[in-house]
Amino acid sequence: MTESKEGGDAERGFSTRIGFIFAAVGSAVGFGSIARFPFMTAENGGAVFVLFYAVIMILVGIPMMVAEFSLGRRSGADAVGTFKVLTGDPRTKWRYSGFFYIAAAGFFLSWYAVATGWVLRYLWASFTGAYFDDPAAFNVGLFEGPDALFWTFLVMASSTAVVMGRVSQGIEKVNLVMIPTLFVMLVGLVVYAATLSDTGPGYRFYLAPDFSEFGLPTVAAATAQAFFSLSLGQGAMLTYASYMQKKQSLAANATLISVSTVSVAILAGLMVFPMLAAFGLLGGGEQGLALIFGPLPRAFADLGGMLGRLVGAVFFTVTFFAAFTSAISLMEPAVAYFHDQWKLPRWKSGLLVGEIIYGGAVLAAFSTPYLAVSSGAITNACVLLGGFMISLFIARRFREEARKEMDYGDRLRTSRFIHPWVTYVMPFVLLVLLLTSLFGAPGFLGGGEGAVQEILAFLD
Ligand code: PHE
Q1: Whose CA is nearest to atom 6 of ligand 1?
Q2: Which of 64, 99, 297, 439 has its C-alpha lying 20 to 30 A from 339's C-alpha?
Q3: Which pTM does this prediction carry?
Q4: From the CA of 305, how far away is ligand 1's center (Å)?
């Protein structure tokens, strides 16, 4: 075993604290921050939603991230191994929740990789100018079919190449380059957007406070968004934390990661909406991911010439870095599993996982409706279920040990607040939100369809 500078196991994990932080921020910042958050904010009350979301981050996001970290760092093992190690029983039923995390992360990636492929395609087209004459025509028919498959293949091949290496050589290095670059470029775009004229309605559309009521569905959706955006409940953060060193404070790391992620999300909206407003493209009804493939390329085209290409290329680089660093973190739970439990070398494990997930991605690349259902309601339900199981495991099997783990490296002893909260409150809160996301909320709390209704509608 080689000791790293900071006393950890450099052979297995991250070699520096900043390496871990950037990798975790890389996992967290993705479509959730660049597309989902700005749109949810605009739809759900602007600045009021941002405040409300900040409260959810403090009450749910940060404590649950500390909780997930505590499992991974304590065990120093993959998601399945974690439950075996922590219960001391290799046949424990809890290991199925480990399998759930690995499967859910792989399932996520099967649609996430397709969407990342679209980004890559747009990035390429920003250089060649392919969508500049007729952005709408370029858009048509390119989201599914052999073309989508080709770009998905590039994404899967490159993320496989990254995870095949040692964590400190692959995942850590890629994030150390991509995350700061992404941040600087995004700030540049926000500043640039502010220099355009007629952007006022964009800022208003995004942030104008609207105090209309929040029902339970909004709370469930915002919590699911917080989980998704922070990469919680899918074993990604658990696996990354198994590579973290003992001296670091889990609470300080979680706070830093969450604040960075929310900042990127807020910045993304400060670029997107003013930019659309400047070209009169606001309120075209594009939701979520469609926002970045529909109206934005049109804005870059309207900007025209070299400038349009440049701004387009910078934006899609930002989005690609965001999505790619999340994609590798979605592969890692499975790669770590085959490496730790089946004793495959990382390169074999990486190849195996890359191939399996690419198989799933073929489905998503050929069916946009499948992609829409899997990226929407099912994803929300999966992250809430994943979070629920972590809090339940801590409450039922890992209570005192979790507290000890949270205390390592934490001089502020934040476990005084976080631990009881995660143990006694979170399991109930998350169960209610999970049921809401599955079956919809009862009418008196505001209607809204759950995942089950959406899946039934899809199968119809
Ligand atoms: N956090 C990522 C995003 O916002 C998605 C993700 C979820 C990544 C779960 C890893 C695990 O896009």
Answers
A1: 231
A2: 64
A3: 0.92
A4: 34
